[in-house]
Amino acid sequence: MIEGGRVPGLPGQPAFTLHRREPSPLPILVAVPHAGRAYPKAVLGNLRDAQASSLRLEDRFIDHVALGIARATGADLLLAHAPRAVIDLNRSPEDVDWGMVERDPDGEGASAMGGGRGELSARARSGLGLVPRRLPGVGELWRRRLTLREVQGRIDCVHAPYHGALAQRLEEIRARWGVALLVDLHSMPPLSVRGGFVAPQIVVGDRFGASCHGAIVAATFAHLARLGREAAHNRPYAGGYVLDRHAGPRKGIHAVQLEIDRTCYLDADLRELGEGLDRLVEDLAALVRLQAAVVTDLARPRADDGWALAAQ
Question: Domain range for residue 240?
Answer without folding.
Answer: 9-85+167-298
